[in-house]
Amino acid sequence: MFLLAACSSTPAVVADAPAVVEQAEANQPVGSHMPDGAEDLCKAADFQYLVGRSRTEIPVPVEVVSRRVVCTTCPVTMDFSPHRLNIFYNEQSGIVEQVRCG
Question: With 0-12 CB in 10 A as exposed, 13-18 as middle and 19+ as buried, what is 90?
Fold first, then answer.
């Protein structure tokens, strides 16, 4: 019965459009956005100096669980953690392109 309802040609009425937008934003790739009003919980601002530098200059973290270093074309998990520092580098050049929480 549920499948038949899903195939119905009658469009569903969305009562709360902002909730739909929030859900769509939640489905974006990891680190693609910071939540509105979020603090810099992962200290990404402290590592912005790495952008434009070689990935070999990334300091080795004390806590590896709270940091992810990955190429911009590499697959990553879709969960968002405001405490995790993400450092994205170009796979071809090895140059850091983005530093952000996520």
Answer: middle
Q: Domain range for residue 26? A: 2-101
Q: What is the CATH number of the domain that holds 20?
A: 3.30.10.10
Q: What digits encode the pLDDT tens for the residues 41-98?
A: 999 999 999 999 999 999 987 778 899 999 999 999 989 999 999 999 999 999 999 9
Output the pLDDT for position 18.
43
Global confidence as pTM: 0.62
Q: What HEC string does 55-96 produce? A: HHHCCCCCCHHHEEEEECCCCCCCCCCCCCEEEEECCCCCEE
The total of structural domains in the chain comes to 1
The phi, psi pair for 99, rounded to 5°, reads -135, 120
User: In a 10 Å sphere around its CB, with 0-12 CB exposed, 13-18 middle and 19+ buried, how is residue 69 labelled?
Assistant: middle
Higher pLDDT, 37 or 94: 94
The two structure tokens encoding residue 23? 């859900």
